[in-house]
Specification:
Elements: H1 17-25, E1 28-29, E2 48-49, H2 54-75, E3 85-88, H3 94-103, E4 110-113, H4 118-124, E5 134-139, E6 156-161, H5 172-185, E7 187-195, H6 197-213, E8 218-223, E9 230-236, E10 250-253, E11 268-272, E12 275-282, E13 285-289, H7 298-311, E14 324-326, H8 343-364
Parallel strand pairs: 3-4, 3-5, 5-6, 7-8, 7-9, 9-10, 10-13
Antiparallel strand pairs: 1-2, 6-14, 11-12, 12-13
Helix pairs in contact: 2-8
Amino acid sequence: MMLSSYPLWWLALPVLLLPIWWHRQKRQRLKAESLATARFLPSAPPEQLRVWQWRDKVLLLVRCLILVTLIAWLAATIFPWRGDTVLVDAGADKAWASQQIEVAGFGAATRMDLPPDALSWLRQNERDWQSDARLLIVARANQIAMPARVPQFSHQVTLRTSAAVSATAVGPSGARSAANAATAKAAERRIALAVAEPRARAWQALFAAFDVAGAASTRHILATEPTTATALIVWDTPGAAPPANWRAPHWWIAPSTAAAFPELANASTLTINGIALKYADSPRGRLWTSDTFPPRDAGTAHALYEAWQLLSPTPAQAYPTPSHIFPIARSALPPIVNAKSAAWLALVLLALFMLERILTHARRN
């Protein structure tokens, strides 16, 4: 089954100029017959004239169609062309990666960068490799998440991952590396505070408490205006409406400013962890309001933090995949979903070639 895989073949369309140029350069020699009195005339070479007949135009059209069909067939046909290949994680230790490649016997294999979600990517692009090709994946331990099911490949795939760095590294440099790693893992949540001055300190103290409650797993970055990365907008400016271009997934709206948001008139009520929240969806994002905005004591702030954590849970961290050898588990590649067969292009190419031969023979006679 031939399926669309290499659309870059369409860049070869300028080759259609070749048959056009060839036909323009063709000459038809006039038939010359010797006369009895020709010996009294000076000799002259025979002339060539450019003669276009209906057969030439049809032949030119057929030849152009042959080239177009050939390009379309090549663009719709999959040719396995990759051999033994090593997919290398760019962040892996170079010496360790080279050692693993040599030990696995892939010293002469082609190397390429490890794509995101390598196992899924390899399943989708496995058709590019020849039937006898082998594949080796060399990556850090945390770069490939363990799939729910063992992936099925038509080639032997060897996965070699480095050991995870221990959090209790020996020496000052090791401790510094562990601290940097913990800081790098902390998620950043950008907050836009549109708050009047008397209440600004209360809101700032709330998110500072959130940082402490999150045990450095989440850092809240406060700003006065939202950006595309803003996750939450806090609106507590009485007597003012927010700018029309402000957007965020969530809004916290103080009760004194709820009149600026007509969507809250039909808000639904949700009580979680002892906090009564009203919410409504709008083109700007989901709007939230509560009488506890902003919290007036530490107990209310802690309850609001727990409620917000339940409403916006973070995805669980995936387990890393250890070193493993995936044997050949299937004899045939699965069909690509929603792909159309291009076998009919081969039949069209054959028919056009036969027609071109017939027209060429008719033109000569």
